[in-house]
Amino acid sequence: MQHLDLQVIERAMQWANAGETVWLCTVLATFGSSPREPGSMLVARGDGSHVGSLSGGCVEEDFLARLRDGAFTRPVETIRYGDDDAGGPQVTLPCGGILDVLIERLEPSDSNLLHLEVLHATLLGRRPLIRRVLLEEGRAHFVEGEAQGPRVERDTQSVRIRVGPSLRLIIAGISPVATVCADFARTLGFEVIVCDPRAEARADFDMPGVEVQNVMPALFIASGACHAATAVVALTHDPRIDDLAMIEAVRTPAFYIGVMGSRKTSEQRAERLARSGGLSDEEIDRIRMPIGLDLGSKTPAEIAMAVMADILRVQRGRPRNEL
Question: Which domains does the chain have, with CATH numbers?
Fold first, then answer.
């Protein structure tokens, strides 16, 4: 499944390279309920053609109608939807929320084409960056940034938008929990890769949009499959799969590494990884075991939900004590 942000930027590049002006819109903040999160993007051209989304449809309709009427002529501006007291568009979101949107008017200049190319390369690559948009000056540039943290940060002068490769989940081994976890992750927009060399395990696993690798997970991880937006989870209870996957995963830049098991099992695994795997205390500390949020989960679906919730928590930079 191609990441929606990538589709937006590829269409923006296509139009800009054809000599057309494009409007790149980014959700800056949401208040109350909202169907799209901060950082979500849409690109449009003057005739109303567009790719991506900002809401469930009502915001897009208003924005595109105003665009066709000749609005949004400044290089950069922000607009608020869903707040009658803000003096903006009189659009009520069905969910009752409020949406702040950044609108960038990008003419097909060399500098804007280069900016889109860097953004495109960042979405495809391994190194996360921050897009810093200067609100008064109407221009944007890239600065170094970490993969984790809020997707959008703002002050009175600028907006900082975190961009990077699509979220990837590598699942080491197939199990009932792994199957549900893969489905959850796919729904959340992750690129999901399941690794299992066992033919009997793969025989009953068939999930559209999920890549299956007939290989030991440790070998796949060691091949360079992990980047800074990758989570690695082992969910089989089979030490031959789980332990080897953890030994390789801690040598990668993956932002989340976890393995399923009780506290007693996790203590025994930590001892094995140090004794037989040669892992240091720092490497073992990178592994979340027991994996996931402590929700008292019992069923495969409950455990998978706890795992995915913890992955998202870490990816968003939220400490456990702030949940």
Answer: 4-163 (no CATH), 168-322 (3.40.50.720)
